[in-house]
Structures are given as C-alpha cells and as structure tokens.
C-alpha cells in the first residue's frame, strides 16, 4: 500500500524528529534499566492504543473488551512457548489467528449495536475472558499465572533485556503509527470518518457499514494481540491481573486523553498511562480518582486531546513568530 500523508513534508519531519528522540533516549539511558523499562511499556501501550485510536477515534466504535485481545495475545504465546516448547514466533502467529477468529465471531453480532450498547456488549466479552484466564488453571495457571516465558529469537540474537526490547518495541510501534497515518488518508480512512459522523448517511451512499466496522474491529484486536505478545516475552511472567476490565477502561480513557483523532495520540496516552502511576505511587489508592480528574480536565480544556493541543500550540507559536518577523 502506498503511503499517502496529509502533509508529507510536515509529517515526515515529525517522524524523523520522533525517531531522533527515541535514538537519543536509548543512548543516554542505555545503562539505566529503570527508564528503559518505562519506555518499553510506553511503546507496548502505544501499539495497543494505535489500533484503539482507529477503532474509537476515527470509526467511532467504543470498545471495552480489548483487555481480552491483549490477554489472548499474551497467554497464547506464553502457553505455546512454555507448555509446548515452540518458538515465540509461532506463539505470535497462533495468537493472531485466535484473536482474528474471536474478533470476527464477536464482532458480527455486537457491531450491529451502537454507542453505549456496543461498549456494554464488549465489556461483557472482556469480563468472560478475564474469568477464563483466572479459572482455566490447567492452561493459564489461574491466579498464579505463567512464568519462565522466553525471550524472542531474531536471527542470531535473542531479544531479551531492556535495550533490545526497546528497539524492537519502538520499531513495531513506529510501523503501526505510519500505517495509521496511511490508512486515514485513503478511501478506507474516509469511510471510517463518515461512519463516525453518521452510520445512516454512510449506508445511504451504498457503503457496507457493518463490513468496515468489522474490518477495523478485527484490525484493532490483532494489534492488541501483538502488544500482549511483546508484553509476555518482555516481563517473562503473566497473570490475570494484567488483563482485567480495569485495563480496558483505562486504555479507552487514555485514547481520549492522548487524542482520539490524532495519530500521535497513542504516544501521549501511553506516556500518561505508564508514567503517572510511577509519579503518583504514594497515592495509588486514589489513582482512579486522579485519572478521572485528568480525564475531566482534558475533556474540558483540551477536547481534542493532549496531542492535538500540543501540536496546535506549536503551530500557533510558529505563526506568531512569523507574524512578528514580518
């Protein structure tokens, strides 16, 4: 697929600048595993949110069940790697196939719903999956989880540890961000925006709305599965607590906070999701309240999200400087 960007020069500059930041960060923090670890988690959640941004922000389909797809990706590769001794790449393939099939089966009936009805339906699916992770002890280990998950072999390298995972995770994240830039500027992306605006009007144009909704739902499920795959092999241990309904709710909130109609929104949302619990560790009993306050503040003062606010501020600042020079 040919990459079509809204403003190629500006957009490529943004990507080059972001790549420079990533490389500089890795060089300065190479000997600091704590900060590298935080950056790896930010990258993993950026991947998950990139799919959610297309689903929720551009196609307008709220989902509270993506904890399930995230968890399926993690548990499938963990089971394949530890119980069957197979390659993590086979675990990735198995997780993608399983997520794709389940997303298709779940999406066919639920995506005929709209708004909060769709959110509640997907919430139920997420709850069922969480219960399976907890109680199918023969495969998932139940509350004890699965330990001893290996790294990821890549040619002569074994991807494990912070620095190698940092480059792997952010390479994948950048690819998904570029793909998102591409897709929203194609006919398919315009269809998603039209569906968000009015499903009835889009249907009247002869467009099969349910088909496009199913496409983006399956895509976002596959992306979440890849995020789960990376998480499992990075931390080498998983348990049901990482894939509960709480995760889905927070991820949806972070999509809104980061910017649900901005491709850079997943990066800002992932930073808030990952960094704020560390900053507020002393008040962890009130983290949900704090997230709620942040969400309300963003909706009130930055309705397009942090990413759009930042880029709009930079753009206005540049216009102001140009006006002064004139």
Descriptive terms for the model:
14 helices, single chain, two-stranded antiparallel ribbon, 4 strands, mainly alpha, 326 residues
Task: Characterise the protein shown here.
This protein is mainly alpha-helical and 326 residues long. The protein has one domain. It is 75% helix and 3% strand. It contains 14 helices and 4 strands. The protein has helices at 8-28, 33-58, 66-82, 88-110, 115-135, 137-140, 162-184, 187-197, 199-204, 209-235, 245-258, 265-279, 287-301, 306-325, and strands at residues 146-147, 152-154, 157-159, 237-238. Strand 2 and strand 3 form a beta hairpin. Helix 3 (66-82) packs across helix 10 (209-235).
Short characterization:
By secondary structure, the chain is mostly helical.
Which SSEs are present, and which pair or pack?
Blueprint: H1 8-28, H2 33-58, H3 66-82, H4 88-110, H5 115-135, H6 137-140, E1 146-147, E2 152-154, E3 157-159, H7 162-184, H8 187-197, H9 199-204, H10 209-235, E4 237-238, H11 245-258, H12 265-279, H13 287-301, H14 306-325
Antiparallel strand pairs: 1-4, 2-3
Helix pairs in contact: 2-7, 2-8, 2-10, 2-11, 2-12, 3-4, 3-5, 3-10, 4-10, 11-12, 11-13
């Amino acid at each position: 697929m040919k990459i079509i960007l809204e403003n190629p020069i500006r957009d490529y500059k943004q990507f080059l600048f972001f790549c420079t930041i990533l490389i500089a960060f890795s060089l300065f923090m190479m000997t600091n595993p704590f900060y590298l670890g935080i950056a790896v988690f930010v990258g993993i959640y950026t991947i998950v949110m990139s799919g959610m941004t297309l689903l929720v922000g551009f196609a307008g389909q709220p989902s509270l069940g993506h904890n399930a797809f995230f968890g399926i990706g993690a548990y499938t590769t963990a089971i394949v790697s530890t119980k069957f001794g197979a390659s993590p790449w086979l675990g990735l393939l198995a997780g993608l196939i399983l997520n794709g099939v389940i997303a298709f089966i779940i999406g066919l009936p639920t995506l005929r719903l709209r708004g909060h009805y769709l959110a509640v339906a997907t919430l139920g699916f997420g709850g069922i999956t969480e219960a399976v992770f907890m109680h199918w002890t023969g495969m998932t280990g139940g509350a004890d989880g699965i330990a001893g998950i290996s790294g990821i072999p890549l040619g002569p390298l074994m991807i494990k540890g912070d620095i190698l995972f940092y480059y792997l995770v952010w390479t994948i994240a950048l690819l998904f961000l570029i793909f998102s830039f591409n897709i929203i500027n194609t006919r398919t992306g315009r269809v998603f925006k039209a569906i968000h605006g009015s499903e009835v009007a889009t249907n009247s144009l002869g467009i099969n709305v349910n088909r496009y909704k199913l496409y983006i739902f399956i895509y976002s499920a596959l992306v979440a599965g890849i995020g789960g795959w990376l998480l499992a092999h990075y931390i080498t241990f998983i348990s049901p607590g990482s894939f509960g309904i709480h995760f889905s709710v927070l991820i949806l909130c972070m999509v809104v906070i980061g910017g649900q109609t901005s491709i850079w929104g997943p990066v800002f949302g992932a930073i808030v999701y990952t960094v704020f619990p560390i900053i507020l560790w002393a008040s962890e009993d009130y983290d949900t309240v704090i997230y709620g306050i942040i969400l309300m503040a963003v909706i009130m003062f930055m309705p397009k999200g942090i990413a759009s606010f930042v880029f709009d501020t930079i753009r206005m600042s540049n216009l102001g400087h140009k006006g002064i020079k004139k």
